[in-house]
C-alpha cells in the first residue's frame, strides 16, 4: 500500500491492445480477422506498466471500466451514435474479463469509466492522494490531480473547482462531435470563452450565461440542461453510494 492511488481509464487501453493484437488470415481470397489473446493481454500489461513507470514514487492502481449500459443514451438516444459505424475490436469481452481477474477494477452501473473516475477521485473512499490518469480532456471537469500519459512532459496538473466548472460549461456550449451531442448551435471554443467571459465568479455566473446563449439561438433552458447533463462527468455528490445510483446534474 502507498499513500497515492492511480485512477486509470481502462477503456482506451482495451482498444489499443486488441487492435494491435489482431491478425489477418487470407482464406480462399477472403481476409479473416482474429485476435491473439496472449498478445493482447501482454500488451495490456505493458501499457499499464509503462503508465505506472511514469508515476514518481509508485502508487496503488484502480482501473475504471465502463458499464455496458449508459444513462446518457437514455437521455439522448443519439449519444455516441456515430460510433456504431466503427467496429469494436475482436476479443473485447475476453480482455475485460482478464483485466477484472488481474487488476483492481471499478465499474458502476450505467456509468462510463470517466464517471467512475470522477466519483472515486472526489469521494472519501480512497485513503491518501488520488491521481486521475487519462487522455480524455473531459475529465478536466473533475477537481483534483490529473496526468495525461500521452503528454508526460506536462506532469501532474491540479484542477480547481472553478476550472472544473469552466470546463463543464465550455463542453455544454461547444458540444462534442466525438460523443455526438451538439451543444449550442454555432458556438465553438472562441464563442464559448466569449459567452462565459472573465468577470465574476465562474461557479455562480457561468450557468445563467450558458442559458442566455441557448435562448439567443431560439432554444430553451431545458435544451441547455440536457446538453449540460450529457457533458457532465459525474463526481461523488452526484452518486448515491448506498443505493448505487447516479443523480443527474442540476444547476445550483
Structure description:
The protein is α/β, with parallel strands linked by helices. It folds into two domains: 4-12 and 56-159, 5'-nuclease (Rossmann fold, 3-Layer(aba) Sandwich); 161-231, no CATH class. Helix content is 40%, strand content 16%. It contains nine helices and ten strands. The chain has a six-stranded mixed sheet with strand order 5-4-1-6-7-8. It is globular. The two termini are 38 Å apart.
Which descriptors would you attach to this protein?
Rossmann fold; two-stranded antiparallel ribbon; alpha/beta; 252 residues; globular
What's the structural domain tally?
2
Low-confidence stretches: none
CATH class identity of the largest domain: Alpha Beta
- What share of residues are in beta strands? 15-25%
Helix content: 25-40%
- Overall pLDDT score: 95
By CATH, the superfamily of the largest domain comes out as 5'-nuclease
Termini, distance in Å? 38 Å
Question: What would you call the shape?
Answer: globular
Amino acid at each position: 500500500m502507498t499513500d497515492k492511488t492511480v485512477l486509470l481509464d481502462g477503456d482506451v487501453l482495451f482498444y489499443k491492445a486488441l487492435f494491435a493484437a489482431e491478425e489477418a488470415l487470407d482464406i480462399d481470397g477472403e481476409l479473416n480477422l482474429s485476435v491473439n489473446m496472449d498478445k493482447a493481454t501482454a500488451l495490456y500489461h505493458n501499457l499499464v506498466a509503462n503508465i505506472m513507470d511514469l508515476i514518481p514514487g509508485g502508487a496503488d492502481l484502480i482501473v475504471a471500466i465502463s458499464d455496458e449500459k449508459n444513462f446518457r443514451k437514455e437521455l439522448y438516444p443519439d449519444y455516441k451514435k456515430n460510433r456504431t459505424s466503427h467496429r469494436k475490436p475482436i476479443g473485447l469481452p475476453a480482455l475485460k474479463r482478464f483485466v477484472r481477474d488481474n487488476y483492481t477494477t471499478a465499474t458502476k452501473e450505467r456509468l462510463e469509466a470517466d464517471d467512475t473516475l470522477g466519483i472515486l477521485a472526489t469521494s472519501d473512499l480512497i485513503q491518501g492522494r488520488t491521481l486521475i490518469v487519462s487522455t480524455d480532456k473531459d475529465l478536466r471537469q473533475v477537481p483534483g490531480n490529473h496526468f495525461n500519459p500521452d503528454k508526460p512532459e506536462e506532469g501532474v496538473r491540479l484542477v480547481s473547482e472553478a476550472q472544473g466548472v469552466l470546463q463543464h460549461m465550455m463542453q455544454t456550449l461547444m458540444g462534442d462531435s466525438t460523443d455526438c451531442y451538439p451543444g449550442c448551435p454555432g458556438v465553438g471554443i472562441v464563442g464559448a470563452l466569449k459567452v462565459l467571459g472573465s468577470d465574476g465568479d465562474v461557479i455562480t455566473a457561468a450557468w445563467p450565461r450558458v442559458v442566455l446563449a441557448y435562448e439567443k439561438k431560439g432554444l430553451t433552458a431545458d435544451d441547455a440542461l440536457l446538453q449540460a447533463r450529457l457533458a457532465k462527468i459525474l463526481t461523488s455528490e452526484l452518486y448515491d453510494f448506498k443505493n448505487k445510483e447516479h443523480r443527474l446534474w442540476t444547476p445550483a
